[in-house]
Amino acid sequence: MAFFNFHKNTFKHGIHPPESKGETNGMSIKQFPFPPVIILPMAQHIGAPSQIIVREGQEVHRGQLLAKAEGYVSVPLHAPVSGTIRKIANVPTISGKMSPGIFLETFPFSTQEVLEGKPIDLDTATPEDILQGIQGAGIVGLGGAAFPTHVKLKIPDGKKCETLIINGIECEPYLTTDHRVMLEQEHDIFTGIKYLLKATGTQKVIIGIEANKQDAANHLKKHIPKGMPVSVQVLPVKYPQGAEKMLVTSILGKEIPSGKLPIEVGVVVVNVATTAEIGRLLPHGQGIQERVITIAGPGVKKKGNYTIPIGTPLRFVLEQVGVDEEISEVYMGGPMMGVAVSNLNISIVKGTSGILVFTKKDVNRIPKIYPCIKCGACLDACPILLNPSKLGILAKFEAYNEMASDFNLMDCFECGSCTYVCPSHIPLVQYFRLAKRIIRKREANKKEEVDA
Amino acid sequence: MLKKTLDISSSPHIVKGRSTDEIMKNVVWALLPVVFFSIYSFGLNALLVILTATFASIITEHFLCKISKKETTVRDYSAVITGLLLGLSLPPSFPLWMTFVGGVIGIALGKYIFGGLGYNVFNPALVARAVLQAAFPVAITTWHPAFISNRFSTVSESVFTWPFMEPQYDAVSGATPLSAFKFDGITTSITELAFGQISGSTGETCAIIIALGGIYLIARNMMSWRIPVAVLLSAFLLSGVLYLLNSELYPSPVFMLLSGGLMLGAVFMATDMVSSPITPLGLWIYGCIIGILTIVIRIWGGLSEGVMYSILLANAISPHIDSLIKNRVYGTKRKIKAT
């Protein structure tokens, strides 16, 4: 009911899917067993894949550099376990594409001590040192996007970061990793914030948390170090508030201009788990070897939050936690934006925030797509204020260029709210993904023609 | 051992449980009290008219799907709604063969030739009623009194008129509050209107039951609240201004709201999602057009009732209402066409 909504403390529109967090939000983080073999794809972040610097047969120590960053928008990869490099070959990734990768066989009786590196001292380091340290640690956005964090923290000339927002929203149903991290790793979070403040030259930090994690908000509030310019803001629960654009609007009431980054309005947004990782790794100069993942969904037996080494094969994970016989779909990430896994031979990557297992009867397989009845539910859901109904009709006629030029298709960030609410079960987001892809391809082709 | 094959699908992997047929089903539930009251006040006549209209709609939809070799779309309940609404908008003693023709026309010309559910420009039930009004002007304005004592035991002679024959009416025939006011200057009391102690189309007489159906659908978020509010508010305001100017000549705004088909039209007919605009502002404009036109036709037109034509006209321009509206997309200054 937009008419009575004065948009206080929140963004426009959005949806309220069932939260489904109750099963795991009370379960503290547990260490997951080391798999016998780690499979590490090099393409596990946005940007150029890492470059392998080890050879087959080499013995590596946990935390040792395996692959270096290829250029600026890229990060290195570290050994998640101590072991032997068995093979360097192409490995499957979630997108279905193959990526160069490393098969690392774990030493069976190793203590799995992590190699210490060159610490980044908070007092003496320059902002540039910290950014290099963050890149050197292989840190990417752990919320799911896996965008290299140092790139985001680099303030462009002429811009100033006035507010640093720590994203503890976790609006995806089922996922509770950020929730548990906030409850259990407050020390790392605040250390991380110190690094981030120095790196960006910011004076003000706001930690945004949704009201369904009030305990985490209280916990963090209690532990704010003396003199630190941090405030915790509890926001009403609404999907997709965890999206950068929506979060900035919810907290500051500002809109990020189309196609621009939050720094355009003087804001940098960093995920809370990423912040904790920075606070944990930088004082020791170590690289990222593992991450916290929620394993949940109706098809899982031992649900919970686990610290799992990067590169752990999905098959091993599911065998350890036990899954239902009738397992039908496995998602990496949340149910709204997560990707359905086509084969269990892929492995955990840095951006994996959750593993959800659904059985046949839980999957809402839509029996029938009805025509659009113009109910307008998608217009009331779209946080970017697009008209998904019209875009869907245009997509059917393959009017992709018109979708982009007249109806701002490229502003869609594929949150899935329109598809979620559509009573006719029209796979709108799927259409939009396809349309965006085709438009990008056409633009690239055009550019090539011009260059030639 | 883990299964070898997995299913894959595009995100989001969860959907809101509500589907189009469920919305349609709920509209049917919301209409049922109206149907029951109609049978209660007009007896077997109303029952037969409503059943015939619904039956004709369902049969036509099924038949058209069959001859175009498509899976039948009867199960989406939209044909049931068309049939019920048509039945509820006809006089209680309306000949059944005419009712049947109406049901066929509503689905075939009002909906199917446009492409079926989701593509109809007009509310199919009103298309049917407009054709019937043009073809059978006497039968559709001959009103049967409510609450006659033998209504559950006998059926009016006119109901069973042979096709293409002139219907014979019983000696007593009632006037609707609107026609009584327009042609004889008689006003009906508000309580009689609210509780349906009056004559009129089978389903339009009890304003309160209709409003409750609407509140149910709005509460379940299955209907736009903006349309009925805009229709009723604009009709109320216009007739209120007129009433203040000359209370001798013009009826009170409350009378205007509760009489005739305004409540039924505002709640169940103007709110047809397919034939109404999609943008929130568009819904307001659309609703106000219906409300104002209804009052204009009622007061200055040759007919005593104007809801049907107002809605049909607003249906016709609803895509154009949307195309006048511009939206600002998040993070942009540019205003783009809403549709």
TrEMBL record, chain A:
Residues that coordinate or bind [4Fe-4S] cluster 2: 382, 412, 415, 418
Record-level GO cellular component terms: plasma membrane
Protein's UniProt keywords contain NADP: no
Topology in membrane: Peripheral membrane protein
Enzyme class: translocase
Cofactor entry: [4Fe-4S] cluster
Binding site residues for [4Fe-4S] cluster 1: 372, 375, 378, 422
Any one biological process term the GO annotation gives: electron transport chain
Entry keywords, A to Z: 4Fe-4S, Cell membrane, Electron transport, Iron, Iron-sulfur, Membrane, Metal-binding, Repeat, Translocase, Transport
Free-text remark on how the cofactor is bound: Binds 2 [4Fe-4S] clusters per subunit.
Domain 4Fe-4S ferredoxin-type: 365-391, 403-432
Compartments reported by the entry: Cell membrane
Entry-linked Pfam families: Complex1_51K, Fer4_8, RnfC_N
EC numbers for this chain: 7.-.-.-
Sample GO molecular function, one term: 4 iron, 4 sulfur cluster binding
Subunit structure, interactors included: The complex is composed of six subunits: RnfA, RnfB, RnfC, RnfD, RnfE and RnfG.
Entry's family note: Belongs to the 4Fe4S bacterial-type ferredoxin family. RnfC subfamily.
Function: Part of a membrane-bound complex that couples electron transfer with translocation of ions across the membrane.
The protein's name in its UniProt record: Ion-translocating oxidoreductase complex subunit C
Lineage of the species this protein comes from: Bacteria, Pseudomonadati, Bacteroidota, Flavobacteriia, Flavobacteriales
UniProtKB/TrEMBL annotation, chain B:
Nucleotide-binding among keywords: no
Pfam family, one: NQR2_RnfD_RnfE
Modification FMN phosphoryl threonine, positions: 176
Obligatory cofactor(s): FMN
Keywords, ordered alphabetically: Cell membrane, Electron transport, Flavoprotein, FMN, Membrane, Phosphoprotein, Translocase, Transmembrane, Transmembrane helix, Transport
GO cellular component, one term: plasma membrane
Lineage top rank: taxon: Bacteria
Biological processes per GO annotation: electron transport chain; transmembrane transport
Bilayer-spanning residue ranges: 27-60, 96-114, 126-146, 198-218, 225-244, 250-271, 283-301
Annotated compartments: Cell membrane
Membrane topology: Multi-pass membrane protein
Name of the top EC class for this enzyme: translocase
Enzyme Commission designation: 7.-.-.-
Database matches in InterPro entries: NqrB/RnfD, RnfD_bac
Family: Belongs to the NqrB/RnfD family.
Subunit structure comment from the entry: The complex is composed of six subunits: RnfA, RnfB, RnfC, RnfD, RnfE and RnfG.
Matching NCBIfam families: rnfD
Reported function: Part of a membrane-bound complex that couples electron transfer with translocation of ions across the membrane.
Listed HAMAP family: RsxD_RnfD (MF_00462)
Name of the molecule in the record: Ion-translocating oxidoreductase complex subunit D
Organism encoding this protein: Flavivirga rizhaonensis
